[in-house]
What does this fold into?
Amino acid sequence: MTTTENRPGSDVIDWSAAPAPTDEAGWLQRAREVRRILERDAAARDRAGATPYDEVALLKESGLVTLLGPVEHGGGGQEWPAAYRVIREVAAGDGSIGQLLGYHLLWFWAARLVG
It folds into this structure.
């Protein structure tokens, strides 16, 4: 079960209980959920300058890191326009984590491109 107990005012989200989104609207909803978690303490985390271990785990648990992957390999099967929208949504909650997600998706795609 996915928890965010270490975040102030957090709630518990169990993304494993529901199937991964299958369309852009579902992925955007998932990104909004991540945004709501991140925006609660983004300024404090930014000031602390700590390594974002929990935030990376949150991106993984939410499945957003698989957004561009082929469905047959467990990915989201989405294209770049959806990825841009998801990145912007996450970045609205925490710009640094949105940038991190963007770079992850870029390098993931680059490996597929030249693989």
Observations:
- The CA atoms of residues 3 and 12 lie 5 Å apart.
- The chain has five helices and no strands.
- The chain has one domain: 15-114.
- The helical segments are 24-39, 42-48, 53-62, 80-93, 95-114.
